[in-house]
Amino acid sequence: MSLVRRAVGTLIHRTYTAIRRAGAISAASPAGYRFRRLGDGVSIAFPPGAIFGEQWIEIGDHTLIGERVSLSCGMMPGPDLGPNSILRVGRGCSIGRGSHIVAHQSIDIGDDVFTGPYVYITDQNHVYDDPDVPIGRQWPRNSPVSIGSGSWLGAGAIILPGTTLGRQCVVAGGAVVRGRFPDYSVVAGVPAKRVRGYTPELGWHAPNGVVTVEPGMDRTSF
Asked: By its UniProt entry, which SUPFAM superfamilies does this protein fall under (predicted)?
């Protein structure tokens, strides 16, 4: 019985591996043709999350999209969103499994941006201007989002409309981010605040200028 169970288990795992390979979306696969652009070496892992509005999505070379990642433009499939791309992901990125990137106006993700799992990025939010109308029935507002090249977004981070992250920024896991943050920022918290920055003179330091050095490290390690 153990030999049969082992053989069945091996067959199941090999079959699932073959399904994942066959189901991955690339520039050469039929599903890849629907995108405005999928660069060389792009792989969207199987099973994907909700994907629609592909004609407004561009993904740069050698970017890897994890399992169950949702990539969408617009509220639902079908509407005409204009002549230009809306969601742009640069080259060499890695988007963690279970993440959601939901674009309506403009989301720009630079090159070599890495995320942990279950990150949420959107350029649209509900409003609550009218206290007599259910919030879900009030027309939402859009505000562009930009994430600079070389940045890292920790697991479960939420990037809200109107956010601009500069280059080489770190977003702590679980942070809820809105606003503008310069290059070399470390942001954390709910709502997120800039807790560290970098200058050649001070290295990595807190916003008040106090140098912060991790245990076991010196300033030359940064």
From this structure: Trimeric LpxA-like enzymes
